[in-house]
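User: what does the whole thing look like in 3D?
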Amino acid sequence: MAKPMHPTPNLDQLESGPWPSFVTGLKRLAKDKDYVVDVLGHLEHSYQTRKGYWKGGTVGVRGYGGGVIPRFTEIKDASGNPVFKDAAEFHTIRIMPPPGMHYDTDTLRKFCDIWETHGSGLIAFHGQSGDIMFQGCTTENVQKAWDEINQMGFDMGGAGPAVRTSMSCVGAARCEQSCYDEAQAHQKVINTFLDDIHRPALPYKFKFKFSGCGNDCMNAIQRADMAVIGTWRDNMKTDDAMGKAWFAKHGMNELVNDVIGMCPTRALQIKDVKDVSKEAHISTVALNDAQCLEIDNKDCVRCMHCINVMTGAMGPGKDKGATILIGGKSHLKIGATMGTVVVPFMSLKKDEDYDQLTELAQTCIDFFAENALEHERTGEMIERIGLVNFLEGIGLDIDANMVNSPRMNPYVRTDGWDEEVAKINAKKAAA
Amino acid sequence: MNQPQLRKPVEHFLDNKKYLHPKLVANYGNWKYHDRPRPGVLHHVSNTGDQVWSVRAGTQRQMDVFTIRKLCDIADQFAEGRVRFTIRSNIEYMVSDEAKVAPLIAELEKNGFPVGGTGNSVSMVAHTQGWLHCDIPGTDASGVVKAMMDELYEEFKTEEMPNRVRLSTSCCEINCGGQADIAVIIQHTKPPKINHDLVANVCERPTVVARCPVAAIRPALVNGKPSLEVDEKKCICCGACYPPCPPMQINDAEHSKLAIWVGGKNSNARSKPTFHKLVASGLPNNAPRWPEVNAVVKKILMAYKADARPWERMADWIDRIGWPRFFEKADLPFTKYMIDDWRGSRYNLNASAHVRF
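Assistant: Here's the predicted 3D structure for the full assembly of 788 residues, as structure tokens:
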């Protein structure tokens, strides 16, 4: 039995209502732990005064320079002693989740046992970068908890100016829209940068995210410095039987309004079977015996909409891989930036293809380490130096897929024009 | 003296094969299609004819060990001891026998875990740490989310929205919660209050000066001590100076307000990905249940639900009806603060005679 609870009139109001309550969970932990009694008191104080009261510091584990988020209370009495003394330290340990965030119950139960022994008993699945967050631990117990978690085969996540923990979607494990082996890419890339994750020495954070298709379930384009988003470059795969079944169930209105009308590049048309184009970049899916949906794969931008609506009737093709985008980040300091295309298509089929991906990642990180200013993300660096300088720095060829449109102003020196054209022509001739 | 033997960490990022459900191992990379037999359930069929049902349930994300063990008990009973989590902290159980789906749902709901969050539902809010653990939070996270999901419970459990709805909350303008169809984010309205006695000892002053997006901070000598001062006319109250310099307190019980942003979308489906846009601000940080914020979120959601066409995300809907009609339908004032004046802002102005009446 733990010590008596502090009154928590604000938090008590978060126990009513149908959604699972974290307050109820904390109270259950507080029955056995003085630590959590004081965590609740600390949080209630924030609710009453509408302020946060944790400050950072330096806490770590042997051999690593990051991954523990230290928190020390700032709620002190007149003589400088913590008011909630059992919760004076409330550190978090960030642990990298397996690709796709799959677990067996044996692992989860072991996590619970370790954290019940050494920590608060509160675990978040997962933080916004993807970490399993073991929340609430004293400085003394951080190493003990870490030793046991690490011995299970799990490794520390990133914090500070480092390569950060990554996430990959459920992907090939359970999704027909997967365009590469997300888990393999995730694991290979992260294992290449363990030193940069565990010993923060970059200008600022660098995040990778792996989504298997343009639906981008991992939110790679907005959050990742390097986003790997699955795509394909041959014709879409189609299935006539499933197309007919879809059409029989949903009808012409839904086909026109929800599928054809919403294609962003007008790549879809209804055709009589006898009128279908015979060109190689055309594919079709049957609607009934007389009509079909004709797909001009040259116009398709792999947005995934029609595939989402008519799952099974259409799908990614066979020549699969990923589009790689660089520079996604949130607001501070220059405003939010999306990742933008630097590799329109990288084939990801054979093991060597994945080595090529890790090599590109390594080149990007090296360039970032050497050229970014302190606290500057990759997207900000590219805004400062221009995409062309970045591409030349990492040795990638330019491609018209990298822009929405060519430039709209004349403020550029073009006295290297003839040499550039000659280079492009030479490359074309060599290809 | 005996030195304790120090353990060398095992530096290795593990693969996930041993954690996958057996059906997912057997059909890895070989799935054909999926459908949704009911809200909260995905049914995947592989090219070999194998089938797996995934049942998705909401959690509180910050979970106590008793909750996690209960979720494990359910997995052992119904799902061959395997689970996975979605990016929005929902748990998924993979089931190889259709007959187990209904009893699994019943067991989850009996234990207080709502089944839903699939397809065109309102899924769980992506959120941050807040007062529970963050060092710079303007508000709480888990509490805001609990209050919001209580209100949106039925929308989580049903699939009655035009398309999927993704929500996020963030306790400061760094926006860790991320882009979303509807995002709730702290918006400070007053410049930081500086404790000049502490700055010299706590803050690396050039770093703080460099952090300001509008160059409003400069070194100064205050009461004979080296400190920093803020040009309050230039200050945009973003709070970027607060993390590197805690004596520059930006959080304020009254003046740290909540703002609401709409139309963020990371998917490439139909339109290109978009960032969310400011549509409401000045809402009070009214713990423990933030009723004013929830009222606006619900108003926007209900306008979207009533008016958007099937498959239109929030951004697609607004793109069709235009911003004047969005503000009319959501019953929100369009204020001067919504007209962008940050870099590149002229691209956000209407450079055409395209006007809806």
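In plain terms: The mean pLDDT of chain B is 96. Chain B touches chain A through 117 residues (CB under 8 Å).
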